[in-house]
Amino acid sequence: MFVRVKDSDNIVMDYDKEHDILYISINKPQPSYSDDELWKGVFIRKSVESNYVSGATILDFSKRNQEALKKHLPFDVDFKSI
Q: Does some domain include residue 33?
């Protein structure tokens, strides 16, 4: 089951409860790639078109320290609504 949350004007979060994966997109989701693993299971995504940060994918989201995630992600996000 997916839950979609719009955090602010430009952050969209899709949470896959069954697999415990949080997908974060800046603006609308777009074709992206990840070559930067912030730490095990936390991937920063970049736009294929512009090479700018386009979001993140966080595996095992419910088991993670959300305050630590907020400090290390390269954009502001509020996890309260997940």
A: yes
Q: CA gyration radius for the chain?
A: 12
Retrieve residue 43's tokens. Answer: 């991937």
DSSP per-residue letters across 10-76 = SEEEEEETTTTEEEEEESS---EEEEEEEETTEEEEEETTT-SEEEEEEETGGGS-HHHHHHHSSS-
User: What is the total count of domains within the chain?
Assistant: 1
19 bridge partner residues: none
Q: Mean pLDDT in each 10-residue stretch from start to end of the chain (82 residues)? A: 61 94 91 90 95 95 94 89 80
Half-sphere exposure (Cβ direction) of 47: Cα atoms closer than 13 Å:
12
Task: Report the Cα 15 to chain-centroid distance in Å.
Answer: 9
Q: Which structural domain range is residue 25 located in?
A: 2-71
